[in-house]
């Protein structure tokens, strides 16, 4: 149990660091008017979650799920930041942007998961 917790913690540190670097890069490229970094990491994280769940299952690699899926992807994706971004947009009076953000993030993240699964099925076939 302790070994698994340490593995998840290490993965979380890697994922959180990748999240921070993605946020900085996205802010520099696209500016800070809209939470593009959060959208990107949630969609990318969903894609990789979908890809890896299929790949791990087909290759017998589920023992790596705590490190990769719970740790790295859990640290990388940002549902709490998504919630804060939504409320911030709403409180600034940008209710339309908040609605687009919520619907777009959810739909694109689910699409990302399906896309990841589809790509993985091609890879493992």
Supply the key terms.
mainly alpha; 86% helix; 5 helices; single chain; globular; 125 residues
How do you describe this structure in short?
The chain is built from five helices and no strands.
Q: Mind explaining what this structure looks like?
A:
- By secondary structure, the chain is mainly α.
- It has one domain.
- It has five helices and no strands.
**What is the typical, i.e. mean, pLDDT?**
94
For the termini, the CA-CA separation is 34 Å
Shape: globular
Percent helix among the residues?
over 70%
Number of domains: 1
Number of helices: 5
How are the secondary structure elements laid out?
Layout lengths: L1 H29 L5 H24 L5 H12 L2 H13 L3 H30 L1
């Amino acid at each position: 149990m302790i070994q698994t917790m340490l593995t998840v913690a290490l993965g979380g540190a890697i994922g959180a660091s990748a999240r921070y670097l993605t946020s900085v890069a996205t802010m520099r490229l696209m500016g800070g008017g809209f939470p593009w970094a959060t959208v990107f990491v949630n969609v990318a994280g969903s894609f990789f979650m979908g890809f890896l769940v299929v790949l791990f299952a087909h290759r017998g690699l589920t023992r790596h799920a705590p490190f990769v899926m719970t740790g790295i992807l859990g640290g990388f994706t940002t549902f709490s930041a998504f919630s804060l971004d939504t409320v911030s947009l709403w409180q600034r009076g940008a209710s339309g942007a908040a609605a687009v953000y919520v619907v777009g993030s959810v739909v694109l993240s689910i699409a990302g998961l399906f896309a990841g699964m589809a790509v993985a099925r091609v890879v493992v076939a």
